[in-house]
Amino acid sequence: MVVAQVARLEQVPAAERLDPERLMQDIKDSGKVGAYLPDVDSIVEHVRKQAGGGDVVCVFQHGGFGGIHSKLLNRLGRP
Questions:
Q1: Where in 1-79 does DSSP place strands (E)?
Q2: 20 to 30 A Cα–Cα from 78, which one of 2, 9, 13, 49?
């Protein structure tokens, strides 16, 4: 699991903000591996290193998110 750094987090009231450190700890506590990464290029490189043949990569985002779809396809190789 990869979670992207949240843009303009400071604009959200503190009580309503995502706490990335807690999220990563909760993921770890559940026995899973997670990464909180600062930008699209870091995410693409992380996925490129971690993904193997037959893996499914699913992207949940709002908006174009820095062209992540085409960047992933280019780095992972189009089928």
A1: 2-4, 35-37
A2: 2
Query: Are 39 and 68 spatial neighbours (Cβ–Cβ below 8 Å)?
Result: no
Structure tokens at 10: 């400071």
Q: Which of 61, 68, 60, 63 shows the shortest CA–CA distance to 41? A: 68
Write the CB contacts of 45 (distance below 8 Å, at least 6 apart in sequence): 75
pLDDT by residue for the chain (79 residues), tens only, comes to: 898 887 788 898 989 988 888 999 999 999 999 999 989 999 999 999 999 888 899 988 877 788 999 999 999 986 5
DSSP at 1: -
